[in-house]
Design a protein that fits this description.
Strand content: under 5%
Radius of gyration: 21 Å
Order of helices and strands: HHHEEH
Largest sheet: 2 strands, antiparallel
Number of helices: 4
Helix content: 55-70%
Structural class: mainly alpha
Distance between the termini: 54 Å
Shape: flat
Length: 130
């Protein structure tokens, strides 16, 4: 039994990747069954994790009139209220965090768009040749 930590997560990710090589649309239940043997959780840990997840969800729902989030979690587990904060260091933390996410999302969006374009090209070439 492997205890879940970052070192072992890399190995588990490799196992998941190997299992998914020929799967186009794996379901979450498939992934859960692959990783289940590698994790042993105590009930108290699971309850604490669920409570933290619920707390993060609730904090993410606080928004202004334009439906823009108000609170952002820093790396120290402290929420920063961007509407009220005057701390430039805190605001910079939030800005860096959001910029990193924005860059990652932009790259993912571009990847999906390229794939859509490739599928459309394949389809139109097939249709023309048919």
């Amino acid at each position: 039994m492997i205890k879940g930590n970052k070192i072992n997560t890399k190995k588990i990710k490799e196992i998941v990747e190997e299992n998914l090589k020929h799967t186009e649309k794996p379901e979450i239940t498939d992934i859960v069954e692959i990783i289940r043997p590698f994790y042993a959780w105590k009930k108290e840990e699971l309850v604490e994790r669920e409570l933290r997840n619920k707390a993060r969800y609730i904090m993410s729902t606080f928004k202004d009139e334009q439906k823009v989030r108000t609170y952002f979690l820093d790396n120290d587990g402290v929420y920063i209220n961007v509407e009220k904060s005057s701390d430039l260091e805190d605001l910079d933390k939030v800005n860096r965090q959001l910029s990193k996410k924005y860059s990652g999302l932009s790259a993912s969006i571009e990847k999906v768009r390229r794939r859509i374009s490739g599928v459309i090209t394949q389809y139109t070439q097939y249709k023309v040749n048919y």
